[in-house]
Records
---
Amino acid sequence: MIVGVPRETYPGEKRVALVPAVLANLAKAGLQVLIETGAGTAAGYPDPEYSDKGAKIAASRAEVFAQAEIITQVLCDGANDKTGHADLPLMRRGQILLGFLRPLGSSQVLQELAATGVSSFAVELMPRTTRAQSMDALSSMATMSGYKAVIVAADTLPRIFPMLTTAAGTITPGRVLIIGVGVAGLQAIATARRLGAVTSAYDMRPAAKEQVLSLGGRFVELPIEAKDAQDARGYATAQGEEFYKKQRELLGSAVAGSDVVITAAVVPGKKSPVLVTQDMVARMAPGSVIVDLAAERGGNCELTQAGKTVRSHEVSIIGTFNLASSVPYHASQMYAKNISSFLLNLVKDGKLQINEKDEIHRETLLTQGGEIVNARVREFVGLKPLSGEVGVK
Ligand code: NAD
């Protein structure tokens, strides 16, 4: 079977779906890779590195789509809301598509994708089980974002992070606060600690406390309890406005006392809760930095502008999204490992075998045969459940 890797087209996107190092394992499973020329260049993987590992190089994008039975991308239509749509006419019924698809996004976009007849698998829907861990691209990319958020903050802050005792005096350490301790937040804690900052973190899920402490961070305890803070899949649940209001009041002094605040508090499929208000920003010291990793979904800071850095009350509020793409070499390496593990799980003896009894297949399969087949997504977009199909509850 041929696995096609088109060049990413989202503006500024530098990652690539497969890197040369994973090709040998794919070849053993009977998968030949066809890559659009230049697809890996921006990530640091030039064409010859792919051909050395046995890949074929396609001169055009149309050739990749025409020849491949399976297409894998980082940002497919849906997740690529700028240019992803242009790929739809290149897809055909029965072709497999694998990548970020933003399954809890626009229902119209999902319907258009379904109408092409492709069998698409959304990596965002990967179950959180030990078996699926090597395929969990959301976590890989969150790891990259958490790391890079701290690097960007350190670069913007007019102070340094570590404590220094020198002949020229003593420098006090930077104070970093992380709000939202998921995968991104945990990596942000680890990175801020490595740079020498005094690092605190807060999450509404009580289970996060132990993780924060194990990384050497201080846990910010607030005297409020979320109702059913996490669902069965380990994700945070949406809370009422009253709860968020209380959180904001209680977080005020922790935010004011920090040089850097990294916010990464998200609820899947929902607008991000506002946890840092304009008044809280105004209480921060001049030159402080907020990196809002929730910017794409509205932001955790009231002043965040998605995709931009704004300065307000002498504080820089960075709403850049897709930080993983700014470290494309390693982000692609991790993503390629996730995708190749997924491919090896889907393909047996050189043939694609979608098995509805396998929860990895069942939960990630988004569209098939012209329809949205995923039960969770159908419910999310208000469609009736299908009967007798893959993806039915
Ligand atoms: P996420 O990206 O869904 O959300 C980020 C964090 O924001 C979460 O920790 C959430 O509790 C927090 N949050 C949401 N609303 C908040 C609010 N109002 N106030 C404070 N915090 C708020 O998180 P994630 O990266 O998916 O990780 C969530 C948990 O799942 C973590 O414990 C992580 O280690 C775990 N996880 C497990 C697996 C696995 O078992 N395979 C895979 C990935 C993540």
---
Amino acid sequence: MNKVQLTALKTFLNTPKNIVILGHKGPDGDAVGSTLALSIYLKKLSHNTTVIVPNDFPDFLKWMPQSDSILIYEKHKEKANFAIENATLIFTLDFNSLSRVGEELQTILEQSQTPFAMIDHHQLPEAYATYQYSDVTICSTAQMVYHFMEMMGDLPLLDKDIATCIYTGIMTDTGSFRFSSTTATTHKVVAHLIELGIDNASIHQAVYDTNSPNRMQLLGVAFQNLVILNELNTAYITLSQEELDKYNFQKGDTEGFVNYGLSIKNIKFAAIFIENKQEGIIKISFRSIGDFNVNLFARKYFEGGGHNNAAGGKSNHSLKETVSQFITNLQSHKNELANE
Ligand code: 5GP
Ligand code: MN
């Protein structure tokens, strides 16, 4: 955020405001962690805050401080619309295109006269925010909330609950501090969070070690369905609606599956295609190691986006057609993916 915007925002936040904080559709640890952290912080500045996410978030995040106060737009439309109508500022966190909140909410936001403030680390931000804090070099929006508090001169307000939310966002978006987005600054921030008394081991356990037997069985199916395209150093997984239903799929169950593709020797590009009959789409996640830019790939072929090494998208075609389209698309990237 530039100095002019920061000063203006500081002045604006000098008196109590009604503030809505929005996360993206399919909320992950960073979306939930960053929105809750910001909300708890702004409440300490005497603002009235409402956190809204478009649809439900996984159970493995439902222990988070104040997570039960989050309005899920699909379920709490009336309350959420009321909060949006009465807001004097709308924060959008962990996304940078209004299309990321789903069509209905997107229309409402586009018609709103309320100023927006963006905190986000994805590529190519859209220009809807009066106050824009966008930095693609930072591993997570949660870490940006820490820096935002720092810029506001409010780090002394950082408490254990805020720290817990920030830690969860950083941990989940960095694959537990192993992706290249994890910097010395990330570790310094995390050191501070641990000094504030967060229980980092328990947070890890709550997020990663609460698997249901069904999820493990579904992972087995995913492994069975894994296809390796040796000459393109690419691996992909498919999961059909039937397979998801067989193992009583719950939100978040497929989180992280795509990363197994990348853990295979020589694989540079991994994808997972997940059928969603209710929405009539195939939801896709892309991951890469090194220079292959999955953000551009997702944008070009699958109405998506994200980061250089982690992105997502969707397709309105059948699972089979989507995969064959993917394989066709790959042919244009042989030079980048194949061994020299
Ligand atoms: P995931 O594969 O874990 O759902 O998402 C990976 C990254 O890509 C995240 O940063 C996420 O916000 C972004 N992403 C996922 N799906 C979409 C999409 O449909 N559109 C856009 N623009 N970004 C996406
Ligand atoms: Mn994020």
---
Amino acid sequence: MLFRIYVFFLLLATLLFSDTYIPKSLEEEAYLKQLRTKEIRIGLRKSEFYNISTEEEKSLNEIVKDLFQNYLNLNVKFEEDYYYNLKTNLIDNKIDIIALINREDYSNRFLNFTNTLFSETIFVASTSTQLYTLEELEGRDIYVAKGHLYKTYVKAILKNNGINARLIEVDNLNDYKDKLILTPTPVLYNSIYGVKISNSGGIALGLADEYSDLIPILDRILNELYREKFLESLRNTNRALALKNFYNSLTPKELEYLHTLTELKIVYESEYNTLMSYLSKLEGDYKGVFPNTVNQIGDLLSIKIIDETHGHLKTLTDLKAEKIDMIALSHTRERSRDFIFSKKIYEIPLYVVNLKTSTDAHRSVGVLKESVEEQIARRYDISSNITTFEDFSEMMNALNKGLIDNMLTANNTYFNPQKYNVSFFESVPVNMAFNKENVVLRNIFDKAMLHLTNREDILKLSTIEKDTEDKILMNTSQKVKNLFYLFSLILIIGLSFILVKLYIEKKHKEELLKDPLTGLANRFVFNTFCSKADDELSGYAFAIDLNNFKKVNDSLGHEFGDTIIVEFSAFLKHIFSDSKIFRISGDEFYGFIDDDLENIVQKFHGYIYFCPNMVRHGVSFSVGFCRKKSSLSIAEIFKYADLAMFEAKNKKEFKFKLADEKFIAQKEREDKVFNVLKENIDGVYPVFQPKLSLDNGKIVGAEALARYSSDSLGLIPPLEFITIAERYNFIHKIDYTIADKAIAFVKNELIKGTLPPDFRMSFNISVVTFKRTDLIAILSGLLEKYEISGKYFEVEITESVFVTDIQDLIGKMKALSELGFLISLDDFTAGHSTAGILPLIPLHIVKFDKSLLDSIELNREGGSIVYKSLISLVKELNLKIVAEGVETAEQLEFLKEQGVDYVQGYYISKPVNIEEAPLF
Ligand code: C2E
Ligand code: CA
Ligand code: CA
């Protein structure tokens, strides 16, 4: 029996995640069949780079093998050889396919290419010569591997940039790696310095003429499945090599130190709220370039990064006392008496602020004591009159009272533009500071920054994170939104004021309002557009987001990404020639059109013809619409258009959604529920549904279920508020509150002596909560608070937790078990493909979903067979079974016969409110 169930799951799994290619037509099937009759010879790249695999990831060559051998199931023979030989071998008909060849390599006309798998970036790199800009290559010798395709390419680029450099061909580039070398894989040569010359064309599969019919099939497979695999492997290869280079660069002493290093206590810059580091309002931790740099290093080296920033005051003293390991701090002369510094991580701008009314703006300047500002002020000798202050508000007071004329500060919080002049002064580098004794750690950190992080990428990531947070905050709720909107309007007016003022001094005013890449109006213009309360306006607002863009941008390079953005913008300008269109951020556009929806949609479809690059690379877009009505402000219709766009999101094709009455009503309701919840989340309380043991017919447990009712909205269904709480990231508050109250209830019964023997109370923990790092601490804290053992409790989780990091999952489950908690798998059904994972995780109980019982009602025979086989599967694994949703006597009878351990359902009891109906 068990064997049959396994076969069933196996079949199900193969159907769902098929491991072999399924031909899309009869012709294809015939063609593949015919191909399988002969041996196909595939040449692979013989180079370390293509053969680096790790425990989790296959090497690039292994993925090629997997594609042809397993996925296409062809009869293949692989041969590894050097790039140059592969090409001659193909001409000499010794091989049929070259795996991973540059598409620009037209050196022979026998070759046909698939679409690009990934693109290479060409670098001039070195292990020892510092390089930052292209200009530094002037007059230098650059070494390049003999016969390398990029030689001519790079020559042309350098020439175009007016740079004279000599390209010298050598047999073994490795001998020259401390000089300047030309390579797409600098990491292979241990290089730490490099300038990017250009993006090359893509790397693809090259096929002899005879096999050109295979190309459309390969292209489809690449698009659907394998490009992603190649990219993942490429990332992994680069990561593995970077780690190797990093470890090679360490001295024995540093290496030894690193082995013992398990955690680092860090205080980030917390005052200036710049992209460098800022407090995330959504997640409550520090984000930005600093935290991201440090966390990335921590992740790669398995060092736990402990963020001590919150409310930390005596950072300098604590660093001196070695209570913390690193802080963010700019390098100044005074500070280097006590501390040592890493290389620059980021730059922050310094501003000169003075009162508008002050006439002579250059007499005296205030700075924070012993700050970089102070050092800079002294260096520039801005004034012979420098006053130092202990804190910012003190300095601000002095400015307002006219005790000082200027202040030099990095603080760019809001200054009222009516009152103050703010102008940019200069940027100062920020570093990490370490205790003077801790040279080894500083060196490790510097090396890790060089080898393991990429400044550009981190900057990009941080920008995206901050934008996303801003956007979520914007959408969060009407009320919050209005406030935020008002605030950002003030801020934007203030900011534009300052910016415009600065700008006039330099260039033209209009340029500022245009997005430089596309020439479309930018976010500032959009905000002004919104602020016009225009009741006359009629038509549709739309919000657009490109699909698949990020992937293309990452794989084919940013220049190519820009090409797509420009192409798409031109398309928008073309179809809506005289309407408002805004580029809101990277690949997001807003617009307002006075036309019929049908016409608009019709026009959008035209991108197929207008945007060849988009189409070729599988980039499409989603649109959300909302019609202007008098009841909705402009800002609101864009909000709904944006929300509708999210729901239209589709990876593959152009899709749109209209925010109609129903949609808007639903979102408004969500907003209301969200607001009510946010105001009083503690109002959530549990009801309890008893659980019956079929062994002895006694109540042996109960499940705590969350309820919420508000004065304005009445009782809100749990699934509604729970979904919202999950979406906006505060479900943990509900879960923890219910756990708290459930534990308090049990403790109380225990004291009264009314708790039945072997009673266990269960409560639900959402996936989102389960992923949190505070889970174990909070739950064990509750046990301590009520001085009660975990053996009275059970935690219900759902299968969705399995998609998280399995190591983390198992770790937490074990920790819970150690506290005495049992763990049950909630909502178990036959439909999930995760049954295979059950034996791997430390679980105690499986709760069969109500739908399983219901399916018996629908299809007596089939349904009960499924139920029975699932029971034997679960029992085989030594797990207990709870059947949920028992509503009739027949069902109870059936479950008894099947040997189910516990039942829960309306037939036994509905969930009850403790005050009204005691459990026992
Ligand atoms: P669940 O964990 O599967 O809880 C069982 C649900 O089935 C409860 O719905 C319960 O009232 C209902 N039920 C029990 N017996 C019967 C029956 O015989 N017939 C029918 N038709 N229904 C029955 P409820 O209370 O509406 O909760 C819905 C869901 O909300 C829960 O499903 C759970 O996923 C979630 N939930 C409830 N409380 C919490 C909580 O504190 N935290 C989290 N994360 N989720 C919770
Ligand atoms: Ca449950
Ligand atoms: Ca359930």
